[in-house]
Amino acid sequence: MEMALRPQSPLCSRGRPELVVRPATATAAAATGHAQSVIRCSRFTRGGLVRCIVSSSDYSKRNPRRTSTPKPKGTASRGYASRPTIESSMKKIEKSSMDDSDHSSSNGKLHIEATEPTGTAEEPSKRELIGNISSSATKEGLDTDDEAEIEEEAGQNHSSALSSTSTDDESIDKKLDEYRGKISALVNSKPESSSIASAHGQGQLTVGVHEQKKSVIGFQEHDRPRGRPFAEAIEGYTANNSVKVSRQNSNDQEQYEPDVQAPVEDDVNPKVVMRRLEELADENYSTGNKLFVFPEVVKADSMIDLYFNRSISVLADEPDVLIKGAFNGWRWKSFTEKLHKSELKGDWWCCKLYIPKQAYRLDFVFFNGDSVYENNNYNDFFIKIESDMDEHSFENFLVEEEQKELERLAAEEAERKRQAEEERKREEERAAMEAVRTQAKSEVEMKKNKLHQTLSLASRCADNLWYIEPNTYRGGDRVRLYYNRSSRPLMHNTEIWMHGGYNNWIDGLSIVERLVKSHEKDGDWWYANVTLPERALVLDWVFADGPPGSARNYDNNGRKDFHALVPNHISEDLFWVEEEHKIFKRLQHERREREEADRKKAEISAKLKAEMKEKTMRAFLLSQKHIVYTEPLEVRAGTTVDVLYNPSNTVLNGKPEVWFKCSFNRWTHPSGPLPPQKMVNAGNGSHLRASVKVPLDAYMMDFVFSESEEGGIYDNRNGMDYHIPVSDSVAKEPPMHIVHIAVEMAPIAKVGGLGDVVTSLSRAVQDLGHNVEVILPKYDCLNLSNVKDLHYRESFAWGGTEIKVWFGKVEDLPVYFLEPQNGMFWVGCVYGKNDESRFGFFCHSALEFLRQSGSSPDIIHCHDWSSAPVAWLYKEQYAFNGLPNGRVVFTIHNLEFGAHHISKAMAHCDKATTVSDTYSREVAGHGAIAPHYFKFHGIRNGIDPDIWDPYTDKFIPVHYTSENVIEGKSAAKQALQQMLGLQQTDTPVVGIITRLTVQKGIHLIKHAIYRTLERNGQVVLLGSAPDPRIQGDFTNLASTLHNEYHGRVKFCLTYDEPLSHLIYAGADFILVPSLFEPCGLTQLIAMRYGSIPVVRKTGGLYDTVFDVDDDKDRAQAQGLEPNGFSFEGADSNGVDYALDRQV
């Protein structure tokens, strides 16, 4: 009976004809008289699996001496194709080289106990049939009675077989017919799933390979589940123990299907099985087939015997035959097994194989253990397996296995990190304790020196001034201290107090007693009863006219204090040992308190950061809701989501059909793009809907929309496509290597917002898991205090000079500093000294450094006109000369400067961005932008929430979050007013932090200052002007206002980073009246610190600030709330409109 098989494309020789073998079901010829051992057994052997090793990826390419067919000259090797290794969570391929011990291992092989056959009944051979018959020597074993029966019957049958085989033929044939019928029934029961089929000719086995080039996942012996009893595998039990039996005659194809009602026997007659194996061997050999399997239906989670005829293969003269294979297109459980000569007639070799339950196909080749391969004319062999698994479900299984493996690796990594963290903490604890101990010793030494100086001044009394009774005393005693008030600073005071301590005030003020007038002494003597501290070596005190906190006048012995020697029962050395221990304990306690406070603060900061990240992601998803969004809003791997799309706001408006085209992982998912879906009405207005099943290994969902299934007009978000992050994925996005080439970087070389963006953007992308580096000139004016581990790295020659390369970390970012030895950056400033020439040289040397160091970044990011030359230098000189993999991104921070450089960079870069969406539209018509607008995108800037964080800011007096913002801002306001000499009132404070340039609206700033002061507010201005005339103008204005509005206004005409933090926290309002503003960070920082921004509606100011009265709908459309005051015009009326509502 022929069974159809799905065509397969071979692994290494696509399009070659398949070798097909179908099962031989005709009645076998009569026995030939070949002597054989006949052994009765109740179960067939479950052979033990040997360990498996990785299949090499180039079996047929390693200098083969011969192959199964000649290969024309010049033909590429098309044998056993390579595939990368994938490791499952439970099983790993053993990547050891095959040695002799591997060759001698066998999956379920049967051993020959007597190496030489015997021809007499008196010496019966105890041979085990290679394949299906188990002798008493197998490990499963038989009981003692069975063994005796086996030996006896084996001897009798062997003797009779030598004399004549005709006696048993009829009974054997009869029994064989029964088993053949049962086997045929099993074959016929599920023809679609069978591994046996016929394409042409008789008795051919389908061979081929899987199409996909994927991994082979190895397994080890202990991972293999035990197979079913071989008798069950042969006879094919059904649930009701009734089997339809089909028999096929090879001559006339006559069929019959008798019902077998009786239960299938549990015992299998080995002679019957042996006869069937010989039939299969004869039939396959006669048709030229090299191999067959038994049972003839290969099922998952079972054992099979695979037979291979060496004589009709390229291995005919080889002493060893091995099989290398794997399952499911070479993607699962690779193995290598050694075949052994079977007892079938001819040159048939055999081995046992276990078929895993996840297998739906078996792929394999034969070889001699070295370089000679039988690989089915470069097509490899494969056998279909009857299984619940198919290619699709196997893909899901692999994803689940990958998830388990990732979870295991993550657990291992977490444990490794935990142990490393514990070791780090132990080391830190040891180092901290040593530091504390050193500090304690230092404090003790310092106190000892001071005490020795004090002891030199101490005495038992001072004539006619003070003395102690009794004359002999020691630490711990109660004594009376007398003081003569006459002719002293307190002679006119009615109250006298003693403020005391001991050992040079070692514990501060620790003794307070009020003196009383002595009526027993002549003169103006006063006294107080004092308990001397037990550890005192000297008593220290002064006299005052009141208790601590109330005293106004003191007698401190002419600023020397009073000191009395105190005899003590402990030695001075012991005292200092105890003192050191006491200081050590105090310092340890203080340290642990600080660490606990830092730990709690870090936990809160992490929580706030996570909440902010979640809020930001939600705002991002909602920001495009007028075009597209998902239900649920957050897309999770392994779930089904609905994509809702509103074509009325896109280029597909009015189209009769909209098609949804989707894939995952930035269009690189192994499953490829999903079939296009025609979107249907969502029932909520103009939105259309499509449903998507998100794979477990998806980390990004990518999609576009089109007017037809074939394409036509696309909405692909202006060439950027739509992308929505996927959470809970088992896969992670591969990291990119990104290099920023810039001339500014906060906080080490900051002039304006460019420096802030370079740092904050790099940190944000680094937090996403990418590898980010920055290349910066090594100015002689760098703020090196913010560079960690700065050290010289290397040098290279370029441009006629040596360029030294330094390396360090800035805000945890790796930074390379280039220092040309021609002194180009030793000019004391960032800008202002032949900038075009200096920065052009820097850009070229930065690319040369990347080339010479062998770096190959994925993204080279240059900023503004100052590093714009990177774009064209890379494309013209380096894209095909050492840096082939990069793409250039160019960001415009301000189009006001260097338009020529910007235009040239726009022409050469791959993508161009600017720092807000509104600003991108405002400059769209500019001559540098318009020709390249198709690759120009507005991406709004952000601030670094770790650097600008009122909860951790070291420049403000009280750290705060939204929970204690009033307390924190009140403390900051008070500190700001006190620092700048402003009146300590609760009047509104308007802060202005800016560069004083025309762009920043200096005429509006002046007007806003006067308007605020007129309305009884306070003003603080921090900033400087690069133009000396503007700087001088504001200096004169400051002098006038400081005199006229003393205590209500303060100008700080300089750059002061700590003061800026205090102004952001202490001000009630922050004014940003720019005439144009690409983005602006000032308003973002203000909102981070709880100050209300007052801005002009332009560029990024419009994108980030929503007026409390005028922008409620606009804010709601983006999932936000109104957050400030804004105005339209560039005149005083606009400023007044905003200020009058706030002050």
What is the compact description of this entry?
The chain is α+β, with helices and mostly antiparallel strands and 1143 residues long. It has 20 helices and 46 strands. Strand 41, helix 14 and strand 42 form a beta-alpha-beta unit.
Would you mind describing this structure in some detail?
The protein is extended and about 140 Å long. The N and C termini lie far apart (95 Å). A 9-stranded mixed beta sheet has the order 34-35-36-33-32-37-38-39-40, with helices on both faces. Strands 14, 15, 16, 17, 18, 19, 20 and 21 form an 8-stranded antiparallel beta sheet that branches. Strands 23, 25, 26, 29, 30 and 31 form a 6-stranded mixed beta sheet that branches. The protein has 1143 residues and is an alpha+beta fold. Among the domains are: 270-389, Immunoglobulin-like (Sandwich), CATH 2.60.40; 458-570, Immunoglobulin-like; 625-725, Immunoglobulin-like, CATH 2.60.40; 737-938, Glycogen Phosphorylase B (Rossmann fold, 3-Layer(aba) Sandwich), CATH 3.40.50.2000; 964-1140, Glycogen Phosphorylase B (Rossmann fold, 3-Layer(aba) Sandwich). It contains 20 helices and 46 strands. It catalyses: [(1->4)-alpha-D-glucosyl](n) + ADP-alpha-D-glucose = [(1->4)-alpha-D-glucosyl](n+1) + ADP + H(+). It is an enzyme of class 2 (transferase). It is found in: Plastid, Amyloplast; Plastid, Chloroplast.
